[in-house]
Amino acid sequence: MSEVALSLSGLTVSFASERGRVRAVDDVGFDLVRGETLGLVGESGCGKSVTSLSLLRLLDPDVARIERGEARLGDVELLSMGERELSRIRGARVAMIFQEPMTSLNPVYTVGAQIDEAIRLHRRVSRRQARARTIELLSRVKIPAPEARADAYPHELSGGMRQRVMIAMALACDPEVLIADEPTTALDVTIQAEILELLGELQRAMGMAILLVTHDLGVVAEVASRVVVMYAGRVVERGPVDALFAQPLHPYTAGLFRSIPPVGASRDGGARRKLPTIEGVVPSLRELPRGCRFEPRCPARQARCAAEEPSLEARGDRDVRCHFPLA
Amino acid sequence: MTPLLEASRVSVHFPVGGGWLSRGRRVVRAVDDVSLSVARGETLALVGESGCGKSTLGRALLRLVEPTSGEVRFDGADISRLDGAALRQLRRRMQIVFQDPYSSLDPRMTVRDIVGEGLVIHGLARGAALDAQVAPLLERVGLPRDAMGRRPHAFSGGQRQRIGIARALALSPELIVCDEPTSALDVSVQAQVLNLLVELQRELGLAYLFISHDLKVVEHLAHRVAVMYLGRIVERASAEALFARRRHPYSDALLSAVPVPDPRAKRRRLTVAGEPPSPLSPPSGCAFHPRCPRAQPGRCDVEVPALSDEEHAVACFFPA
Lengths: 327, 320
Description:
The structure holds 2 protein chains of 2 kinds. By secondary structure, chain A is an alpha/beta fold. Chain A has helices spanning 48-55, 83-89, 101-104, 111-122, 127-140, 146-149, 159-170, 189-206, 217-223, 241-246, 251-258, 303-307, and strands at residues 4-17, 20-33, 37-41, 64-73, 76-77, 94-97, 177-181, 209-214, 226-231, 234-240, 267-268, 271-272, 313-315, 318-320. Chain A folds into 2 domains: 1-93 and 173-264 and 273-327, Rossmann fold (3-Layer(aba) Sandwich); 106-171, no CATH class. Chain A is built from 12 helices and 14 strands. In chain A, helix 5 (127-140) packs across helix 7 (159-170). The radius of gyration of chain A is 21 Å and the shape is globular. By secondary structure, chain B is an alpha/beta fold. Chain B is built from 9 helices and 11 strands. In chain B, a hairpin with a 2-residue loop joins strand 9 and strand 10. Chains A and B meet through helix 7, helix 8, helix 9, helix 10 and helix 11 of A and helix 6, helix 7 and helix 8 of B.
């Protein structure tokens, strides 16, 4: 039996806007299993980053409010616990890395000093012990000459090296869960490949669960074992990567796959074939359709879809939010 | 037939100012001795990773940055020495679409003024005549009629990129340099914009110099591809030939690093060791040799391989 590291259910997050509150995330849930990578995918504005930030309550409380939901990490619940308790979990049991390592690192401290601090925040160790651990972490993320690099400032490192530093810092306290929000989006593909490989190796060695938030279905196919697809604040489909990629059940998921330029199959005698697209645009959170949120753009819509929003229903080992799933 | 655009041995070197003592001593060779051509109605893709010089090259060909040396010919005429009115006339025929649809549109201008700016500058239309020219352009790129009087903030990323395309089309250019036009967009929106670019090319006979790091997009769109590494073209071929077989080890590594959205795909990943070198201190010999699995000491670290004079050209001493 696989052991659930983090279980999220019913997460609903609203934001203040000029015309009242809008729901950016609506009843989102998933289980993150120990040792596995779960891909959380969707396009801009679908709520995937809001979901991941909510887990550690990193949203600006002046505008964002977690209306409902539970996030169980073993014996504790993250969404309702006190700020002081939560600060003992953040960075220790649940760590996070972001898209742009330059903005997550402090430019005026050496990277070594920042990792030392992350360690000493959660562990009672001497400076010397912390530095030894920092060097060990830097070599673990395969930074060459870690002793020397610990004294480097962030701007002296390349984007790929900075992301390695962020990963080292995230791993400082052996977290159970690592949330990686678009960790390779700002990197070149050859560097991305190395970082993904590194995350996989570290996961196998340390057994942590990874929540990988990304817009890149290629990245998900390579590293995730299960995937959650979001659209306009809702989970529309959820299941094992192999089955979901082989046969998407939700018309949105299917449309998303089709709009990726296919590898090695896009030309007929030199003429460029038209890429299938999803017509229209994502609805505004202020004016969500009454029924299924994808209905106005759905090529398979029927009368019922505009009237009644489907619920997330199980189909074998998968879940889909559609009245007329594709299989 | 003369190619529409022909660059021969173009270099762009930037001086790097350290202190006053070192001024002028060091240069970054952002683009080094690059030759290429683009035919009418054709898409040439320039592919490579950050810092390889692809955007600088694109700008140098439009003379948005000045080439340090080399010659650029547009429709047979040397444009390297044009200035004033002659350069402005030329600019009507070659336009650019930028990557970031947010920073490349002036937020204070209406869509009418953004798209029509070129027409006004060239004295081709104003007032009601301007509206009459801008309206069909907006319609052609798939923007709603009422877009005319609105400002960029009212539009999504994909729509803004359509505004950028309409602006580029306004002067009926023959060549458009597309600098990563879809890399800031979601895939479903990207597909819409790519389809638009293909349609426009077919209808108007446009040539594109398509600058991109996304090999999936390039394979879909390009007729020919040039792969750049640290300021130089390392491989150049028809898209069919290149995607069927990479001759340069860097092209091969680049392609194999692209994640494929198919979990069953068996990976043949060639991770290349290390990171791209700094253009400030490029390696001796072939710039790729420190990361290359095929590098031979005594040759690759000493001599710079020239781009071969073949249909499927490669700059490598030991090509596949």
